[in-house]
Amino acid sequence: MLKQAQYQASRKSCTTVLVGKAVTADGSTMIARNEDGGETPLPQRFVWIEANQPNTYQSELTDFAMTLPEKSFSYTSTPDAITGSGIWAAGGINSQNVAMTASETITTNERVLAFDPLNDAGIGEADFTTLVLPYIDSARAGVERLGALLEAYGTYESNGIAFADREEIWYLETIGGHSWVAVKIPDNAAVLASNRFNIDVVNLNGPDVLYADAVKSFIEQQSQTDVIDYEHINLRHYFGSYLDKDKVYNNPRVWLGHKLMGLDVSNVDPTEQDLPFLVYPDQKLNVHDVESILSAYYADTDFDVYHNETETGTPVYRPIGMNRNEESHILQLRADVPDSVAGIHWLGFGPNVFNAFVPYFANVNDTPAVIRDTPGQADVQYTYWLMRNIAMIADADFDFYQPMVQAFQERMQHAGDLFLAENQLAISVAELTTQNQQMADKYLQAANALLNELLNKGTGRMHLRFPMAD
Predict the structure, then answer these.
(1) Which family does it belong to (predicted)?
(2) How far apart are CA 47 and CA 37, in angstroms?
């Protein structure tokens, strides 16, 4: 059975961004997500898991256990630094250049859950990446493996999970305890997914949609017409929830993401309950555009978190970049480069408004200690905790500190772009591991310089001061 105390302590609520290869500036596929925790920091690590791990698995949150395939691929991931409540590997890229991010916490409705109840003895976000990513060689294979696991063992929560390879992106949402649906994202489309059921109009009879057998049974049970148009069916209407909470917590994030993708949202209400799942941006998006979306706090809108609060001092709408960002990743699979340098795991620790994302090669045999060995308690020798400290200082006097933070972010964007530009050719695993170490060192050095600047310039603005010195 589900160990509720451990589960609630580790439960995440996130934001997902998907960008098809025809929309990206360089023809890559990108799947990205903010992994958000609670009000207390939940430190994260960046690790590399070697191939052919032990073939037994025991969940730490339920009694679920299973035998895994003998052969597995190596992969990167970002598990929790504090152990005992599950792995929560979050997302990564395996040695076959397949990426997975798991997962986006979503909601379904009571009709679905009565038809297909959640299973407290099943699997969930804490398990998904570990059970799937090491065993797949394509995005579609990820959907098929996870779908089979869900149907066989069930899940105790509702989630959205994304997969990508160099050609395709697939997005899967669980519906009930054992049912699920997945769609292939068109190459010219993008997605902003929040914490509710996101998939809307699909062709259930088409080749780009996969689903559990129970899906059509539920639709037929709930349909108010004898003739069901499966080629233009809105799954959100059948499986989703339409809550007042969505109007302030979920829908505005989708509206904001669409705005930052270059879509005209001037006549769209941010609280709209049926914002589209798939959008088709006219402009090309690069990694830094995705980073901006994952960091967004409604700047330059009437809902700017730092300048337009409610009377209670809270934001009008839930932002994307926020205090509960623990780690964020953009999993990029590049086109027109050798396989060895195709998989790029862009990583940011802590609140995205104040951090910077930098690239790490996935085809390595280790990760740098400053991001691999994050301790459970504060220690600014490690990147996660250093960025947490910077965010606490910079958030307290946003307008004063933000120019310094932005200068740091621009320096790291330039460093990341240069890092990839200089490594376009086939490189050995050992050399890629060394390159990652150099990037981690550069980031830590730049972040420490930023912390030093914040302290030097901010000390004179402390409330506890007196301008006359003896």
Answers:
(1) Belongs to the peptidase C69 family.
(2) 19
The per-residue pLDDT for range 386-408, each reduced to its tens digit, is 999 999 999 999 999 999 999 99
Report the pLDDT averaged over residues 59-84: 96
Rounded Cα gap, residues 290 and 284, in angstroms: 11
Residue 171 phi/psi, 5-degree rounding, is: -125, 125
Angle between helices 429-458 and 398-421 (to 10 degrees): 160
Model confidence pLDDT, tens digit, residues 329-383:
999 999 999 999 999 999 999 999 999 999 999 999 999 999 999 999 999 999 9
Residues facing residue 331 across a β-bridge: 31, 345
Phi, psi at 367, each rounded to 5°: -125, 155
Task: Name all domains of the chain by residue range, CATH numbers in brackets.
Answer: 4-375 (3.60.60.10)
Interatomic CA distance for residues 95 and 272, integer angstroms: 41
pTM (2 decimals)? 0.97
- What mean pLDDT do residues 172-183 have? 97
Confidence of residue 179 (pLDDT cuts 50, 70, 90): very high
What tens digit of pLDDT does each residue of 286-322 get?
999 999 999 999 999 999 999 986 667 788 999 999 9
First to last CA, the chain: 66
**Alpha carbons 263 and 255: distance in angstroms, whole number:** 9
Paired with 325 in beta bridges are: 36
Task: Determine the pLDDT at residue 311.
Answer: 66
Of 15, 29, 20, 96, the closest CA to residue 292 belongs to 15
Residue 152 has what pLDDT? 98
Both structure tokens of 169: 């992106």
Provide the angle, in degrees to the nearest 10, between the axes of the packed helices 287-294 and 251-260.
Answer: 150
Report CA-CA distances (Å) from 39 to 10, 12, 287, 351, 459.
11, 11, 28, 12, 26
Of 2, 14, 23, 133, catalytic:
14
- Strand segments, DSSP code E, in 334-391 are 343-349, 358-361
Give buried/exposed letters for 156-170 (b at 16+ CB in 10 A, else e).
Answer: bbbbbbbbbbbebbb
Nearest to 290 by CA among 164, 386, 377, 392: 164
Cα–Cα nearest to 364, from 317, 409, 427: 427
